[in-house]
Amino acid sequence: MAMTLGEIAVRFGLELTGDPGLAVDGVAALASAAPGKLTFCTGAKYRAELAVTRATAVVLPRELAAACPVASLVSPRPYAAYARIAQTLHPVPAVTGGRAPGVQVAPTAQVAASAWIGPNVVIGDGAVIGERCSIGPNSVLEEGVRLGDDCRLQAGVVLNRGVVAGARCSFKSGAVVGSDGFGFAPDADGYVKVPHLGGVILGDDVEVGANTTIDRGTIGDTVVGDGVKLDNQVQVGHNCRIGAHTVIAGCVGISGSSIIGSRCMIGGAVGIAGHLEIGDEVVVTGYSLVTHSLPGPGMYSSGWPAIEARKWRRAVARLHRLDPRGRGGAGGG
Amino acid sequence: MAMTLGEIAVRFGLELTGDPGLAVDGVAALASAAPGKLTFCTGAKYRAELAVTRATAVVLPRELAAACPVASLVSPRPYAAYARIAQTLHPVPAVTGGRAPGVQVAPTAQVAASAWIGPNVVIGDGAVIGERCSIGPNSVLEEGVRLGDDCRLQAGVVLNRGVVAGARCSFKSGAVVGSDGFGFAPDADGYVKVPHLGGVILGDDVEVGANTTIDRGTIGDTVVGDGVKLDNQVQVGHNCRIGAHTVIAGCVGISGSSIIGSRCMIGGAVGIAGHLEIGDEVVVTGYSLVTHSLPGPGMYSSGWPAIEARKWRRAVARLHRLDPRGRGGAGGG
Amino acid sequence: MAMTLGEIAVRFGLELTGDPGLAVDGVAALASAAPGKLTFCTGAKYRAELAVTRATAVVLPRELAAACPVASLVSPRPYAAYARIAQTLHPVPAVTGGRAPGVQVAPTAQVAASAWIGPNVVIGDGAVIGERCSIGPNSVLEEGVRLGDDCRLQAGVVLNRGVVAGARCSFKSGAVVGSDGFGFAPDADGYVKVPHLGGVILGDDVEVGANTTIDRGTIGDTVVGDGVKLDNQVQVGHNCRIGAHTVIAGCVGISGSSIIGSRCMIGGAVGIAGHLEIGDEVVVTGYSLVTHSLPGPGMYSSGWPAIEARKWRRAVARLHRLDPRGRGGAGGG
After folding, report:
1. Cα gap C274→C237, rounded to integer Å
2. Which value does ipTM take for this structure?
3. Do B172 and A182 touch (CB under 8 A)?
4. Is B238 a catalytic residue?
C-alpha cells in the first residue's frame, strides 16, 4: 500500500522535513532504494550511503537529519519506527477463516471460525484455537493445546499435548514445543526414563524460530514470558523459565531448570548449563559458555575470536606450557 | 492411578517408614507437593525443603530418612526408584491398534495389527512395523524401515530407507534418521557427491530427541547401541558408532566415522571431530571440543566459563601478549 | 549394475593395471570388500589394508599402484574418481513423473509432468517445479517457489514463499528455507518485528542438510552460490551470501548479513558473527568463533582441544591468575 509522508509523520509521531504530500509505496535499503521508497539510516557509519540515497524519505536520528539529501523523518529510535512503517506499507495478509482439504480436527477441539487451518493439519482432543489463528500445512497440535488469538504457525510445526500459548505468538517451520525433556535416572543396568508430567506455557507475543525445540517440564512447567523471541535452532530444556522480552539468538542451548531473567540478550550459540539463574538485563555475547549463575544487569563472555591457525596453535600450547604440570596435556591422551 | 505405600514398597523393593495403608495418586515436586502425592529428595542440599514438605511420602537415600517429616521410602538410587514409581502412577496410555484417516501404507509393508498409525503417516515398500508401535501424525517411514516392538514415534518423524530400530525405541518430533551423510569428494571443478550406501542400525531402548539427525553410512552402517539416549538437536555423522547406554545431551555434533564407547556421558553442545575413538565410561563436560581420541574411563573438558565481558577481553589479550610473536593476532587479520 | 574394469577405465579416464575384462557390480570398503567389488585407497596410511584387500579393483593414487595386490585404477584424485564410479554402479533411481494420493497443488502452480510429487505434498500458488524434480512426502512448497530441473526434496522439507533454487539442488528432511529472519527493533516496551521482504536464492547443485535452516532477507535476498554444500543443522541468517563451492559442516551458525567467499571450508559447529566478510578459499577449523572479517586464502582457528578435566580446570585458572586484576574472575559472579 502507499502512504504520504504527512500520513506517516502523523501516524508514527515523527518529525518530517520535506514535502508531506510525497508518497511512498514500500521500503528499500539505503544504498539501493529507488524513488518512491522509504528507507532508514541508523548511524553515522552509513553517512556516505545517506548522501547519495535516491529514496523518497529516510527515517533517521536527529543528528543525521542535516546530512539527508531527501525528505527525512526523525525518530529517537529510527529502526523501530522504520519497522512499524514497513509493517504498514507491507501488511501481512489478514487471516481468512476456513479449513483446507485433508484437515483432521478432533470433535472436542474448539477452533474459532475466524481461524485458518491449512492442508493436512491435525488437531487433537480438547484443543482450543483462538480467533484469527493461522495454522500452516502439515502442522500437528496434540490434545489439549491452547492458542490465544492471532497466533501464526508456519508449515510443519508440532505442538505436543497441552502446550499453552498466549496471543500473537509465532511459530516457524519445524519448531517442536512440548516434547519430553531429557530426563533419565541412572540405575544399575542403564537408565530409567523420568516421566514428563509438566507442560509448556508461552506468554503473549512469543516468537519461536525454525527447528527450535522447547521441552515440557518434568514436574511443573517450562515457562516462556511475554515478548520473548527465540531464533532458529534454539534448544530450551525442561523446566526452564525465560523472562519477558528476552531475546535469544540462533543455536543457543539451555539445559534444564535454568532461569533467565527479563530483557536479556543471549548471543548466538551460547551454551547455558542447567539449574542456573541469570538476572534481568544480562547480555551474554555469542559463543559463550555459562556455567555459573550470572547477576544482572551485566555483560558476560567467554568466546575466543578465531585467528590464523598457526598462531592459534601456538597460543594453545602457550597456555599449557605455563604450568610445568601441564606439559603434553593438550592431546588429552 | 493410586497405590498404597505398602504396595509401592513391595513392588519396588523399598524400605518404608510410615503407614503402609496411606495412598498416593501421583507425583509432585518436593517443595510444592500436596498431600496425596509422592515426591523424592536426592541430597542434603534439599534438606530445608524436605523439612516442610506436605507430600504423603518421599523417596530418599538412607541418610535423609531421619530428617523426613512424612512417610519415607528408602532407596540407594532414589531418583531411579522415583522414576519407576512415577511411570506406574502416571502410565503412558497403552497403544490401541488401528489406522487414522489419511494413512498411506505400501501394500508390501508389514504393519502389526496392534500398532497405531497416525494421521497422514506414509509407510514405504517392505517396511516392517512391530507390535504395539505408535507412529505419530505426518511421520514418514521410507521403504525397508524396520521397527521392533513397542517403538513410539511422535509427530513428524522421518526414517529414511532401510533404517532399523530395535524394541522400545522412541523418536521425538522432527527427528531425521537415515539421511545421506555429508560426503563430497573435491574435484577440479567443485565437489562430487559420495553415494551413501550404508544404513542406520539402532539397538533396543534408544531415544532420539526432537530435531536430532543421524546420518546413514557411506559404506557400512551408522550404529547406535542399546539404551543410548540422544537429546534434542544432536547431529550424528555417517558411520559413527555409539556404544550401549551412552547418554548425549542436546546440541552435540559428532563428525563422521567417530566411535564412542559404552556408558559415556557427553555434555551439551560438545563437538567431536571425525575418525576419533572415545573409550568406555568417558565423560566430556559441556561445550568441549574433542579433537583427539580419548581413552576411558576419564573426564575431559575444554569449555571456558563466561565471566564479565571486560575481564574476558583482558584475558584474551593476555594470552596473545604472552608471546611477542602473537602481537596483534587477536584480530585474525 | 555391473561394469568391466575396461569400461570404467575408459569412461572415467583412469589408468588400469589388470585384466580389463574383470567385472565389478558395486563398491565396498577397502578392508571388507569381497571379490566382485571395487574400492578405493587414498593414502599410505591404509597401505596395510591395501595389501590384503580382496576387492577386484582399487582406485588409488599412482604412488600406491605398486603396492596393490589386485587390479588398480590410477587417478590423481582417487576419492573423486571413486565417487563417480560409485554413482554409476549404484545409480539413484530415475524419477518417475506423477502424483501420489493426498497431494494438494494450487491451480496456478506449474509442475512439470516429469516431476514426482509425493504423498501429502502441498504446493502453493504460482510455484514452478522443474523437470524430473522429486518432492518427498509431507513437504510444503509455498506460493511462488521455483525449483530448477532435477531437484530432490526428501520427506518433510519446507520451502517458504518465493524461494528460488537452481538445477539439481538437494534438500534433506526437515530443512526449512525461507523463514523470516531474526529481526526485531528494540522499542520502549519490547521489540518490533522487522518485516522480511527479501527472499532466498539458491544456485545450481546446492545441497541443504537435514534440519538446516536458511532465513529469507529483510530487504534484499539471502544468496547461496552454485555448488554450495550445507551439512545438517546449519543455520544461515538473513541476507547472508555464500560463495560458490563453499562447504559448511554440521551445526554451523552464521549470523545475519555475513558474506562468505567461494571455495571456503567451514568446520563443524563454527559460529560466525553478523556483518562480516570472509574471503575466498578460507578454511575455518571446527568449533571456532569468527568475530572479525577474515581475508582469504587462509586458515583460522579458535577451538580448544579437550584435555583431562582436572588439567583443564588448572589451565583456566592459570589464565585468570596471570593478571592480578583478574583474581576471582572465573566465577563470573
Report:
1. 8
2. 0.95
3. no
4. yes
